[in-house]
Amino acid sequence: MLTLGVNIDHVATLRQARRTVEPDPVAAAVLAELGGADGITTHLREDRRHIQERDVRLLRQTVRTHLNLEMAPTEEMIAIALDIKPDYVTLVPERREEITTEGGIDIVNNLERFKEVVDRLQSAGIPVSWFIDPDPAQIEAAAKTRAQFIELHTGRYAEAKDEATRLKELKLLQEGTKMARDLGLRVNAGHGLTYWNVYPVACIEGIEELNIGHSIISRAVLVGLERAVREMKLAMRNQL
Ligand code: PXP
Fold first, then answer.
1. What does the pLDDT read at residue 94?
2. For ligand 1, is residue 190 a contact (CB within 6 Å)?
3. Percentage above 90 pLDDT, the chain
4. Per-chain mean pLDDT for the chain
5. Does residue 23's CB lie within 6 angstroms of at least one atom of ligand 1?
6. pLDDT class for 95, splitting at 50, 70, 90?
């Protein structure tokens, strides 16, 4: 059964816009779960532009589903993850100037270092997922690190300007999922998914979880978070 991880970072983005205490992403996580979220996803960035360490610590105590901590594979973040022990971590690339995570991480050119990162986290009982493009070389490298999961970056599919490109990107996601499963990896996907483009990705056999943030929080501003999450779960089944 395909599950939905709701990324609550944008609630913190609004809070940080005023450097105040509201809206609280911890409260948002509770409402997302009441709306049917199967997991809560949150990205602690090096520049702390939205989520703060305090949020992750409280989420660890309050999330009733599972907590997926997105982070860069840096010493600072590894130390935080080993301390907080999220249910799993998703390792993402990070550039200070980017608006959001713009591409997948490059495992191929960092293989030895990344193997060690996976080993440190997974031997502490924290499964690791790599956020990568649906590129066979990266998928193969992810398997070599012995990580349990990958999250396929759906950004290029989501941003496709025409139907032919969209179908080409969808095929890459389908083939990438199959390849990863054959290599023994579990597969999640996310980035740029909306109520209108989610269904074809939700139909890909072998994907376990979709991580969706911006589209859900945008709708939540207008209709409330519980309803926005419920409606995304309907959209994943083409029932909206
Ligand atoms: N997955 C990962 C690894 C991400 O970095 C993000 C964005 O924070 C998402 C999923 C969610 O993307 P969006 O906000 O476009 O739904």
1. 82
2. yes
3. 96
4. 96
5. no
6. confident
Q: How many A from CA of 213 to the centre of ligand 1?
A: 6
Domain span holding position 111: 3-236
CA of 101, closest atom in ligand 1:
5
Which letter does DSSP use for residue 98 in this model? -
CATH of the domain at 138: 3.20.20.70
Between the CA of residue 132 and those of 103, 137, 140, 219, what are the distances in Å? 7, 10, 11, 27
How many Cβ atoms sit within 10 Å of the Cβ of residue 182? 11
Number of structural domains found in the chain: 1
Question: Is 50 part of the annotated catalytic residue set?
Answer: no
Name the catalytic one among 70, 169, 209, 231.
Answer: 70
d(CA 227, CA 160): 28
Closest CA to 124 of 82, 94, 181: 82
The model's pTM is 0.96
- Å from CA of 4 to ligand 1 middle: 12
Q: Whose CA is nearest to atom 6 of ligand 1?
A: 191
Distance 71 CA to ligand 1 centre (A): 12
User: How far is ligand 1, taken at its centre, from the CA of residue 55, in Å?
Assistant: 18
Tokens 């909206």 correspond to 240
Placement of tokens 């591409």 in the chain: 103
The angle that helices 111-123 and 136-144 make with each other, rounded to 10 degrees, is: 50
